[in-house]
Amino acid sequence: MKSLRLLLLTASFVLGACQTFSITNQWRDPSWAGPPANHVVVVGISRSDTMRRIFEDTFSQHLQAAGVQATPSYTQIPPGGPGAVPLRDLVKGTGAEAVLVTRVQRVEQRINVTPSGPMYGGFYGWYGGAWASTPSVTQYDVVTLETSVWDARTEKLVWTVTTQGVGSSDIPRVTTQLAETLIPRLKSDGILQ
C-alpha cells in the first residue's frame, strides 16, 4: 500500500477522458500467480470530486455487469486529502482482492492541418483553385491515461496499462469506453475473474 499511497498523494492531474481508446503500453507482473480478483475497489485520481465520483460509479457499474464486484473509493475516502489509511480500511472492510486506479498521465495539444488541393484543368483552373482552396485546421487534446491494478493481499502492482484517446468532457460516455476496452483485457490476462 506504500506505493499506492504515493500514487494517491502525488497524482495531481484532473481525471480527463477520451472518446476512443487505444492501448499504447501494457505490463503484467510475470511472477504474479493470482488468483484472479472477484472484488475490486475502483479509484479515480482527480482534483474534481464530481469527475471522480462519475468515473468510479461508471467503471464500477461496468465491472459489476461483467460479473466482478466493485466498490467506488469515494464512499470512504474524502476528496482532496491523503487517502491511504481510509483506502486500506475500505479494501480490508469490503474484502476486495484488488485495487484499480486510473489517473491522467499527460495531455498533449495537437493540431491537424489538412490541405485542400487546387483544382486542375489547365493552368488557369489550377491557379484559380489554388487561391480559392484553404486548409482545414483542427485543434484537439490527446489524453494519456494510466490504469493500474494492485493486489490487495500483497500490496504489489500486478498489471498496468496506458491508453490514449481524444479528450472529451463527457465523463460517463468515455468511462464506458475505457471500461469496454480494459475489462475484457483484464479478464483475458487473468487479473479479473
Report on this structure:
With 193 residues, the protein is α/β, with parallel strands linked by helices. It has one domain: 3-Layer(aba) Sandwich (Rossmann fold), CATH 3.40.50. Helix content is 34%, strand content 32%. The chain has helices spanning 2-10, 49-65, 84-94, 123-132, 171-188; strands at residues 22-28, 39-44, 69-72, 98-114, 136-151, 156-166. The chain has a six-stranded mixed β-sheet. The two termini are 22 Å apart.
Structure described in brief:
The chain is α/β, with parallel strands linked by helices. The chain contains 5 helices and 6 strands, in the order αββαβαβαββα.
Ordered list of secondary-structure elements with their pairings:
Blueprint: H1 2-10, E1 22-28, E2 39-44, H2 49-65, E3 69-72, H3 84-94, E4 98-114, H4 123-132, E5 136-151, E6 156-166, H5 171-188
Parallel strand pairs: 2-3, 2-4
Antiparallel strand pairs: 1-6, 4-5, 5-6
SSE string, helices as H and strands as E: HEEHEHEHEEH
Number of domains: 1
Give me the number of helical elements. Answer: 5
Radius of gyration: 21 Å
The spatial strand order of the largest sheet comes to 1-6-5-4-2-3
Separation of termini? 22 Å
Identify the CATH architecture: 3-Layer(aba) Sandwich
**Share of helical residues:** 25-40%
Q: Which fold name fills CATH's third level, the topology?
A: Rossmann fold
Tell the overall outline. Answer: elongated
Please summarize the sheet with the most strands. 6 strands, mixed
Strand-pairing-aware structural class: alpha/beta
What value does the average pLDDT take?
84
Counting DSSP E segments of at least 2 residues, the number of strands comes to: 6
Q: Work out the strand percent.
A: 25-35%
**So what's the CATH class?**
Alpha Beta
Q: Can you tell me the residue ranges where pLDDT is under 50 for at least 5 consecutive residues?
A: 1-19
Keywords: Signal
Protein name: DUF4136 domain-containing protein
Pfam families: DUF4136
Organism: Dyella solisilvae
